[in-house]
Amino acid sequence: MRAPEVQKTKAATRSVELISLLQSGYGRRTDTVAVEEPLEIRLARADETGPGRAISITMRTPGHDAELAAGFLYGENIISGRDDVAIVRSCGPSGNVLRVEVKPHVALDLARLERNFYTSSSCGVCGKASIDAVMSGAPVRQIPVEGRVEASVLGGLPRQLRAGQAVFASTGGLHAVGLFDLSGELLAVHEDVGRHNAFDKLIGARFLAAALPLNDSLVLLSGRASFELIQKAMMAGVPLVAAIGAPSSLAIELAEAAGMTLVAFLRENTFNVYTHPERLLGGAE
User: Rounded to two decimals, what is the model's pTM?
Assistant: First the structure.
């Protein structure tokens, strides 16, 4: 089994010149912004030659591209285990094309791949109106109620997540997803201009380390809880998802169906529990 091999290293931030309106008038200065560039994910068998099949284009912040690709393919139920992947490598001069080679035993549903996935940094996979339509290739997975979380642990998660957002600290322009153990210890943070990309990077890192499912962990989203993010959490086996922002109606429906605890509007001393409060100790009945 060969390790991921992403050959191009690209900066996640860039300096730009701008004009600011200050109390003393207009002035020129330099600012740091998050980089947003396209990433094309190509899929091929390890014994194939040629460019492979282009299956996704996403606008992302460069960095952890192999993890992003692995997390995306896992969430779409195209690969299911670390042994499915032979190598992940960049192609071409731009550093914006990634080739994922799967081993010969992996059964690829080529007709399904003809959907030609397209994602954007703002909304992820768009235009899907119901759980049945979105979950056709990846049915609802039930998450068992095993470990439980003290309600008091949740209030400290946003502060830890913000402290771990190195690129956000310099740009103010990135989403983040944090992985915690059930006692509230921060295990990993991933950032990206796209909230779905940040989650794919986190899941992909665990996938490539053969550390899925995440059934003894919880996840914090820096923004809202959308259907797509709950879908990714379900596929990774996350029992509790917390969000600083609001949940959507479909996110709530999927969390309920999957047996996942969904917490939103998380602040230091307050939060709302939308589904399966039985996992929380000392705060929800």
Answer: 0.86
Report the C-alpha gap between 269 and 158 in whole angstroms.
11
Domain that holds residue 184: 149-281
User: What is the predicted pLDDT for the residue at 127?
Assistant: 40
Helices 249-258 and 227-235, packing angle to 10 deg: 20
Structure-token pair, residue 240: 């509790």
β-partners of residue 244 are none
Q: In CATH, what number is assigned to the domain containing residue 165?
A: 3.40.140.10
Q: Which of 22, 240, 38, 256 is nearest to 150 (CA)?
A: 240
Predicted confidence at residue 92, as pLDDT, reads 80
Q: Which residues face 272 on adjacent strands?
A: 264
Annotated catalytic residues are 123
Q: What angle do CA 191, 37, 60 make, to 5 degrees?
A: 30
Question: What SS3 string covers 133-197?
Answer: HHCCCCCCCCCCCCCCEEHHHHCCHHHHHHHCCHHHHHHCCCEEEEEEECCCCEEEEEEECCHHH
In a domain, 261, yes or no: yes
Is there a contact between 71 and 13 (Cβ–Cβ < 8 Å)? no
Number of domain units in the chain:
1
Identify whether 172 is part of a domain.
yes
8 A C-beta contact, residue 1 and residue 82: yes
In 3D, which of 47, 114, 51 has the Cα closest to residue 78? 114
Residue 53 within a domain: no
Asked if the model's pLDDT at residue 130 lies above 50, the reply is no
pLDDT over threshold 50, residue 128: no
